[in-house]
Every structure is written in C-alpha cells, then in structure tokens.
Amino acid sequence: MHPQEVSFVKYQGAGNDFILIDNRAGHFLREDTARYQRWCDRKFGVGADGLIFIQDKAGYDFEMVYYNADGSEGSMCGNGGRCAVMYAALLGIITEKTNFLATDGPHVASLMPHGWVSLGMKDVDVIESIEGDFFTDTGSPHHVRWVKDLANYPVSTEGEAIRWRTAYQPGGTNVNFAEETGDHLLSVRTFERGVEAETLACGTGVTACALVYASQHALRGAQLVEVQTPGGMLAIRFEVTDKGFRNIQLQGPATAVFSGKLIDKF
User: Fold this and answer.
1) What is the pLDDT of residues 24-80, one digit of tens each?
2) In the 3-class helix/strand/coil scheme, how is the chain assigned residue by residue?
3) 253 pairs with which residues across the strands?
4) Where are the domains of the chain?
5) Which tens digits make up the pLDDT trace of 152-192?
6) Which of 137, 219, 220, 256 has the highest count of CB atoms within 10 angstroms of its CB?
7) What pLDDT, in 10s, does the model give residues 107-146?
8) Which residues are tagged catalytic?
9) pTM value?
10) Whole-angstrom distance, CA of residue 72 vs CA of residue 66
11) How many angstroms separate the CA atoms of 68 and 48, rounded?
12) What's 128-252's CATH class?
C-alpha cells in the first residue's frame, strides 16, 4: 500500500458535518466507495455525516458530488449543499452567488451575512398522506410524522423502522419527527438513511417538514418557517402556489471547523 496525503476541510451546517475535498483534478473516482466510508468513520477516519467532492462541470460554477457516511453516493443534502457553497467560496471558485449542479439538478445559492448561506431547492409538487404521516421529496425522500414531546421521542427506533419499510425499498427513506412549537416555528429531529442514525440536522428534512406544515395549515403565498434542530436553527422561505411549492430557499449556517490532511493508504 502506498500512503497518500489528501487535503480536506471539515465543515458543519447546524451540526450536520462533512468532509469537503477539491476534486477538480479528478483524482478521486465515484466507485471508490469503501475508501470514502473509511474517511467518514468516526473511529478510523476524520469522522463525518458525509463526504463532498467539488468538481468541474461545464455550464456551472462547480458540481457537488455527495457520499453518505456508509460510502454510498447520496441524494441531495441541503446542509451539505450550503457547506459546498461556502467551500467553493474559500477555493475562489465563486464570490457572492453561484449556480452549481447536484445529483437532483441545478441549484442557485448566495452568501448571506454572519456565515449563513441561502440555498435554492428543487420545486415540490406533491405531498402524500400515508396512514396519518406524510411523504415528500425535496431532493431526498422524506417521511414526516408529527409528534408530541419531541425531546423524549424514540427517534432512533421509530426512525429505523420507518426507514426500512417495504414500501420505501430498495432505496429507503429519511424520517423526520416534527413538533409545532409556535406560529411558523417547528422543532425537528431526523433519522438519516446512509448515516443510519439520528443526525443533529437535515436540510432537506426540515424543508420537507416546513412544506408539510404549510400544507396542513392551508397557507398561501410567500412564507417563512423557522425550524429548531438539535444542531441549531434553520429557516425555509418558499411560495405556495396552485402548482405546489416554488422558490424554496433553505437558509442556515455553514461553518469551517478545521482543515488537514488524510494519510490515506490504498
């Protein structure tokens, strides 16, 4: 085995943490998933909820390629997307605004004051009702359940059971447990597939909960829903139209934690 030094920056967005690597030279291949799982391992690697490569893409400022902590290539990650934007700014690829490509399509984003990023999300047309719960896709699939006493709710056991439901296979789903704590104010906890555990925040998940909230309250027009997660506060701005939810913006922090070099053997 030949050791290789891999430069990275660790970012977190509301406690959702990621390894960010500049892969514009194309050194790292999409299929090398066991390697990426090892990097994300909290005992044998850097430790992260996911890994993000920044890559060149014609017609865009960059491409975001995302891997879950288990090494599988993931669907859209909202908190990761904001961190990718902040990392692209650090690399000098962008300044205040960007147009980048992710697995669910193009995204626009802009830097905000105080280290926040506003990330444009995909339009959402449909929210399904499932046995008293809800399901929607905000770039990643999300099951949403309203609960009481969220702080003491068994997120891990209930989340794992729903994540593996036959109806959601083979890909499975993320699972969000939400509680309404005020006017346009929610608390949300999330069990994430690919991490296979509760994370401190999930950007696509809080977006899903905000849209379900708007649907349940029959809201119309421009809306702002704030969401408290275990890792911090996030905000979702959107418009409710006759065709569904449009101009969705996930807003929240994206903070560099540390930089370093992986000593990788392959």
Assistant:
1) 999 999 889 999 999 999 999 999 999 999 999 999 999 999 999 999 999 999 999
2) CCEEEEEEEEEEECCEEEEEEECCCCCCCCCCHHHHHHHHCCCCCCCCCEEEEEECCCCCCCEEEEEECCCCECCCCHHHHHHHHHHHHHCCCCCCEEEEEECCEEEEEEECHHHEEEEECCCECCCEEECCEEEEECCCEEEEEECCCHHHCCHHHHHHHHHCCHHHCCCCCEEEEEEEEECCEEEEEEEECCCCEEECCCHHHHHHHHHHHHHHCCCCEEEEEEEEECCEEEEEEEEEECCEEEEEEEEEECEEEEEEEEEEEC
3) 116
4) 3-119+254-265, 128-252
5) 999 999 999 999 999 999 999 999 999 999 999 999 999 99
6) 137
7) 999 999 999 999 999 999 999 999 999 999 999 999 999 9
8) 77, 202
9) 0.95
10) 9
11) 9
12) alpha beta
Q: Which two tokens stand for residue 199?
A: 């994370």
Q: Is the pLDDT of residue 248 over 70?
A: yes
Query: Which residue type is seen at 122?
Result: K
